[in-house]
From TrEMBL:
Bias (Basic and acidic residues) ranges: 1-11
Full protein name: Bacterial Pleckstrin homology domain-containing protein
Region (Disordered): 1-26, 543-577
Lineage: superkingdom: Bacteria
Polar residues bias: start-end ranges: 561-577
Length: 577
């Protein structure tokens, strides 16, 4: 997390990577050490390149004695003892904390892919694609997590708490001014009570950081706030949980709920994070107080670990809840802003025109977007996939702008298709419904087009007019439910191309306009066909039914009876598993 003194920065994260060949930087001069003391968290020693300073998190409430203890321990163990000459000065100067990027963590875990110098892995510091320095990396695995915990456990617990406090502090600071502007008419009393508590804890944290201690008088000034803080935290966790429950359990009314309660959702999400920050600050002060007393009382030292564990548990529960809620609201607001045909947006019990609705949505989005981006960075704009099955004249941009917000993290759009309205789906295979093809051909001009977006995870379908005007999708089919796919040519006079898609639950036929090249249709069918599979459980069930039918037929012959072919839904029950 890019932070400096608890404040988030909008800069590109530097990456500590493997050493580049032919580097102009002499490895013997590298005097920066990143020692991973907790998974993904490193203490930075020695000289700090300018680009790393932007990412550095100060020690905050971590006592000076703990910093010295960590430095002494790391400088004295294992292979690092051989580094006394080159790294001794570096270990004598702990500069701050750094959250390792996923790339750096992967390299540290690989271990053997990095060069070794003076008992540590040697890596280059990249920024904007250029090497700006070198650092020695000491992964937690090299030190030994058990050894770390046994020797400097309470000190590491204080580091963990400081990282937690920095994490949630950065989130709340991005949105507090905008939220105050938007929510000037609701919940004034609640907001005043919460902000007073947050301010008192912030002030105490700042004073403790300045004097690098938590004296008795300072602790006594905020110790009595614990019950009020817990009440605030539970109140807004409950509010956020209720919002999420409403969204998840009423999928049909999800959008209406989000739109109607947009302001309340922004308030509750931000209030949850604010109360969480105040609670974390209070716990960090409590831990610092216990850490100071731990020098003479082993139970106080153990309490630091307990506080760090419980605080992490609270964060791990509340942050995903807030992220989920803010994600849902932000997605809907972004979609509404993209929809020129959106009719109304009910807010505060009033019906507004489409222009006013988009303006209101834009204002709410402006308020919540900094928080949304901090909790969950948005995906980049969606580009057209390599395979598109559509008329050449079709403008894909409006579809891509909206579809962007429906895709999940890491989901890849593979192909887009725009068939006509499919034949009505029913238990009888559309392949057998030849008469429907003639009817579809007769009403070509009035047929509503369908959007088919195939990703590496699912098939998304929507009526194009509904998608563009209301941002609504019709169906999502997980690709593991695809059973059979084929591209065919309709037998009607138009000789249109078509695709038959048979899933676990239904049969669909998509017809394509005659001006769409058959190779495009074949490409769409080929991508869908990659997912064709029949799970063993379904195959076994079909086999059991076949055996049962044979046995039943044998008994019927013996009794002088006859067996009839299954009809209607019985003929396709194998697809209903």
């Amino acid at each position: 997390m890019p932070e400096e003194n608890g404040q988030r920065k909008t800069v590109d994260s530097p990456v500590v990577d493997r050493p580049a060949p032919d580097s102009d930087i002499d490895s013997t001069t590298a005097s920066t050490v990143l020692a991973e003391v907790l998974p993904g968290v490193a203490v930075v020693f020695g000289e700090v390149p300018a680009v790393l300073k932007l990412e550095l998190i100060d020690f905050g409430l971590v006592p000076a004695a703990d910093r010295t203890q960590i430095s002494t321990f790391l400088a004295s163990i294992g292979n690092t003892a051989t580094a006394a000459g080159n790294l001794g000065k570096a270990f004598a100067s702990a500069q701050g904390l750094y959250r390792l990027s996923s790339t750096t963590q992967a390299l540290l875990k690989a271990g053997g892919t990095l060069a070794v110098k003076d008992g540590a892995n040697l890596g280059a510091i990249f920024a904007n694609g250029k090497i700006v320095g070198q650092a020695r990396l000491i992964p937690v695995a090299a030190v030994g997590a058990a050894q770390l915990a046994a020797t400097i456990g309470p000190a590491l617990a204080m580091i963990a708490l400081q990282m937690q406090l920095s994490e949630v502090t950065g989130l709340t600071r991005t949105n507090i001014a905008l939220t105050s502007q938007v929510l000037t008419t609701i919940r004034h009393e609640q907001w005043a009570e919460l902000t007073a508590l947050v301010a008192s804890i912030d002030r105490a944290v700042d004073q403790a950081r300045e004097i690098e201690s938590v004296p008795t008088s300072l602790w006594n000034s905020i110790a009595g706030n614990e019950a009020s803080l817990r009440k605030q935290l539970e109140l807004y966790r409950l509010n956020v949980s209720n919002h999420i429950g409403q969204i998840r359990h009423d999928t049909q009314g999800r959008r209406a709920y989000l739109e109607t309660n947009a302001e309340a959702i922004i308030f509750d999400a931000h209030a949850l994070l604010s109360s969480l920050k105040a609670w974390t600050g209070h716990q960090a002060l409590h831990a610092a107080r216990a850490r100071a007393a731990g020098a003479e009382d082993v139970d106080e030292a153990r309490l630091v670990d307990v506080i760090a564990r419980d605080t992490r548990t609270a964060l791990d529960s509340a942050l995903p809840e807030a992220t989920s809620l803010v994600d849902s609201l932000t997605r809907e607001l972004r979609i509404i802003v993209e929809l020129p045909g959106r009719g109304t947006l009910p807010l505060s019990g009033k019906r507004k025109g489409s222009t006013a609705a988009r303006q209101t949505s834009a204002r709410l989005l402006e308020a919540i977007q900094p928080l949304a981006d901090a909790l969950h960075p948005p995906a980049p704009p969606l580009e057209a996939p390599g395979a598109v099955c559509a008329p050449e004249s079709l403008d894909l941009e409006p579809y891509l702008r909206i579809l962007r917000w429906f895709l999940e993290d890491g989901e890849t759009l593979r192909v887009l298709g725009f068939p006509d309205q499919p034949d009505a789906s029913d238990p009888i295979s559309s392949i057998l419904n030849g008469a429907m093809e003639m009817l579809a051909a007769a009403r070509d001009k009035a047929t509503t087009k369908i959007l088919v977006a195939v990703t590496d995870r699912r098939i998304i379908t929507a009526k194009t007019n509904t998608f563009l005007e209301q941002g609504e999708i019709h169906q999502e089919i997980p690709i593991e439910r695809v059973r059979y796919v084929r591209a065919v040519t309709s037998q009607d006079k138009s000789s249109r191309s078509a695709i038959d898609l048979i899933t676990r639950d239904e049969n669909i036929r998509w017809h394509f306009q005659v001006d769409i090249d058959n190779s495009q249709v074949d490409t769409l069918a080929a991508v869908l066909a990659e997912s064709m599979t029949i799970p063993d459980v379904e195959r076994e069930e079909l086999q059991r039914r076949s055996h049962a039918a044979i046995e039943s037929g044998s008994k019927g012959e013996i009794a002088g009876t006859t067996c009839t072919e299954p009809t209607g839904s019985e003929a396709t029950t194998g697809n209903d598993e």
